[in-house]
Structures are given as structure tokens and as C-alpha cells.
Write a structure and sequence with these properties.
CATH architecture of the largest domain: Alpha-Beta Barrel
Shape: elongated
Number of domains: 2
Largest sheet: 8 strands, parallel
Number of strands: 18
Number of helices: 11
Distance between the termini: 22 Å
CATH topology of the largest domain: TIM Barrel
Helix content: 25-40%
CATH class of the largest domain: Alpha Beta
Structural class: alpha/beta
């Protein structure tokens, strides 16, 4: 981690724009909130590092000690293994060409679980494990809501897949992800999604056990359901990733407040088009991503809400359009535009933290709890893991 001394710390007025900013105070608060919930529910918290993709951010997850994590790429798995993490779940369906990298990590002493949902995958995993003469722990993906991959809990082929894995010493358990919870618009809908997610995973595990197969891990989680679950009986671990930074989609669902959003992008005003009611910035979709996740919510937030450099919302100002390197700010409902001269720096709160973070090489870190009335000092730079 690159840190800045208090005497030399640049402010957000220093780096060239656009650039990503993380408020470490909000990040710590978000992490503590879900950690406390997992402890109350009696499950292991296995954070998903795909949002931040940062070893420095991950150092906050388990009190500075490497702990269990979930990854979405083998590049993440390798980077986190290099940093001392030995308990990793790779939560994307496995393909044969990735197995050499998986086996290389296993031989380094890393417990790296892979994910599958088919007989074909189970067969080539079992064959690879026998050839390598090493355990290759695997989780069977369970479809709890039709969102993406996985087997339904009552799928006829589930025990057979489990048996192929078990006979090769590879069966670890089951994993599910309530992707449709991102459309759950009330607290009651999120609790129902959390219950359905739990029930799907637990019932699949019980079917495997009834077939005489061992199930060690029963893994559930998404950011909405992780914050809504009240009973995780039968579950061993909880996963979530977006919660570290949160974003406007999560705020729109009611999972968090705007004051919890830890990620923003600093942009500069570069033009005005008063005839159209536009303020133009140098932060387009290359800085924010094309994600429009709030478009389907009750309040469409465009490409992001706008704050000043201190992080105070500018009422009614929204980033409503983006081209590659240009962002367009307009006043909601045709209201008056604020006076923001060319050269003014602003911060944009993103729709989807994962997508916006992916546009940047790293984060300039500030501490929003230190309100000095001036643009906050940059206290560190956190690089991101990139690639697949």
C-alpha cells in the first residue's frame, strides 16, 4: 500500500481526473456491520473480493489477518494467495483449461474450491484430481431463483454429480446465490429471498447427505440477502461483496443509505450547454461504466448522483448521460442548474460499485470522518487486481 504522510498528503484537488476515491471510514463501517450480523447468525463470513479487488481493502475484512474469501477470477485467487490467503472459493463455473492454475494453487497449500453444476464438469474435475493425485475441493452450484447457473435442489442428477465428486475425494458441499434479490424492493421481499436462498441450499445438502454423501460446506449469500437474513439454520457460511463499498442500486433497494456509499469518482467540469441544461464533465462511461442499474428502480439515478469534494450531495443534480470521456449533468425535473464554473471538481456516486471500480487501476483513499471543511486529504493509494 502506498501511503501519504500527513505533511505531504495531497487533497482531492491534486490528481488528474477522473479517478476513483474510497472513503475508508465508510468502508470500515460497512464491513463491521455485516461482520456483526454474521456473528449473530452463527455463520462464517466469506466476503467476496470481486468488488474492491484490493488486498488493502481485504486487509480490513478480518482484522488484518488473512481469512476466508470468495473470488471471481483466478487472477484474484493467485494475488490473494500471494498475500497469505489460504481459504478461497472460486465462485464461477469451472472450465477444463483453468484446472492447471487451480492445481498449482492447491499444491502451494491453498484450499481453493471450484464451482460446477453439471456431470461433465464433475467428471473432468474427478479425472484431474486423480491424475494430479491431489484433492480438488468442489462445490455444486444450486439454483435458488432461476437467476443464473446451478441445479435446482430437486434436480434428479444432483446425487449422481455428488457421487462422482465424492469418489474422487472432491465433494466439499453446495453453494447458491440469490441473484434475483437485486430486484427485491421491500424489506419483506429481501427476507423472503434470504429464506428461499437458505432453503434451496439446505435442501440440496440434505438430499446429498440422504444419498450417503458428506457435505461440509453450505454456502449462501448476496449483499441484499446477507443483510436481510434472520435465520440461517443449516448454513455454514455467508458470502457478500458489494457491501464493502455499497452503491446507488443497494441504496435504492433500501439495503443501505446514501451515507454508506464508500466509492465515488472525482471528475472536473469542462463545459456548459445552457441551451440544453447541461453541465459537461471529463468523466464519461470510461470512468463510471455503462451500468444503469437504477433505471428499473422507483428513482432512476442516471449514471450517478453528484456531490462536492467534501462528499455533500448537490440537491437535484444527476449524471444523466455519458459518452466515452464526457459526462452530462442535468437538474432533476428541469430545475435550475447550480453555478459550477469550468475547473470545478465534483464526485459522482455510482450505480454499481463493481462495474465502476473495474474502470480504474486503484483507489485514492480518504477518511470522511475527518471533516475539515476542505477537500479531504488522500491518505493512501490501493491498487486493484486486474485480469482473469
Amino acid at each position: 500500500m502506498n501511503t501519504c504522510s500527513s505533511a505531504t498528503s495531497p487533497a482531492l484537488t491534486g490528481p488528474d481526473t477522473p479517478f476513483a476515491v474510497v472513503d475508508v471510514h465508510r468502508t470500515r463501517r460497512n464491513i463491521a456491520r455485516l461482520r456483526a450480523r454474521a456473528e449473530r447468525l452463527g455463520v462464517t463470513l466469506r466476503p467476496h473480493v470481486k468488488t474492491a479487488k484490493s488486498l488493502d481493502a481485504a486487509a480490513l475484512l478480518h482484522g488484518g489477518t488473512p481469512g476466508p474469501v470468495t473470488v471471481s477470477t483466478l487472477a484474484e485467487a493467485e494475488a490473494f494467495a500471494d498475500a497469505g490467503h489460504t481459504d478461497i472459493t472460486y465462485a464461477v463455473g469451472i472450465a477444463p483449461h483453468r484446472l492447471p492454475r487451480v492445481i498449482a494453487l492447491l499444491r502451494r497449500g491453498v484450499t481453493l474450491r471450484v464451482l460446477l453444476d453439471s456431470t461433465e464438469q464433475a467428471t473432468f474435475i474427478a479425472a484431474a484430481a486423480r491424475e494430479a493425485r491431489t484433492g480438488l475441493p468442489a462445490l455444486i452450484e444450486i439454483d435458488c431463483d432461476g437467476h443464473r447457473g446451478g441445479l435446482r435442489p430437486d434436480a434428479p442428477g444432483l446425487p449422481g454429480i455428488g457421487r462422482i465428486l465424492h469418489e474422487a475425494g472432491c465433494l466439499d458441499g453446495v453453494l447458491t446465490h440469490a441473484g434475483e434479490s437485486y430486484s427485491a424492493r421491500t424489506a419483506g421481499e429481501r427476507r423472503l429471498a434470504a429464506d428461499e436462498e437458505r432453503d434451496a441450499a439446505v435442501s440440496a445438502a440434505e438430499r446429498l447427505r440422504a444419498a450417503g454423501l458428506p457435505v461440509r460446506t453450505v454456502s449462501v449469500g448476496s449483499t441484499p440477502t446477507a443483510h436481510a437474513a434472520e435465520d440461517l439454520t443449516g448454513v455454514t457460511e455467508l458470502r457478500a461483496g458489494n457491501y464493502v463499498f455499497f452503491d446507488l442500486v443497494m441504496a435504492g433497494l433500501g439495503v443501505c443509505a446514501l451515507d454508506d456509499l464508500a466509492l465515488s469518482v472525482v471528475v472536473t467540469v469542462i463545459g456548459h450547454r445552457p441551451e440544453y441544461g447541461w453541465i459537461v464533465t471529463d468523466g464519461g462511461w470510461m470512468a463510471m461504466s455503462r451500468d444503469r442499474g437504477t433505471a428499473a428502480q422507483a428513482q432512476d439515478q442516471g449514471y450517478g448522483l453528484v456531490t462536492d469534494l467534501q462528499g455533500t450531495l448537490i440537491p437535484g443534480l444527476v449524471m444523466t448521460a455519458a459518452s466515452q470521456e464526457h459526462g452530462t449533468l442535468t437538474a432533476r425535473d428541469g430545475g435550475a442548474l447550480p453555478d459550477l464554473p469550468i475547473g470545478t471538481r465534483l464526485r459522482i456516486l455510482p450505480n454499481h460499485a463493481c462495474a465502476t471500480a473495474a474502470q480504474h487501476h486503484g483507489y485514492h483513499v480518504v477518511d470522511g470522518s475527518r471533516d475539515t471543511g476542505t477537500p479531504p486529504a488522500i491518505e493512501a493509494f490501493w491498487p486493484r487486481v486486474t485480469g482473469w
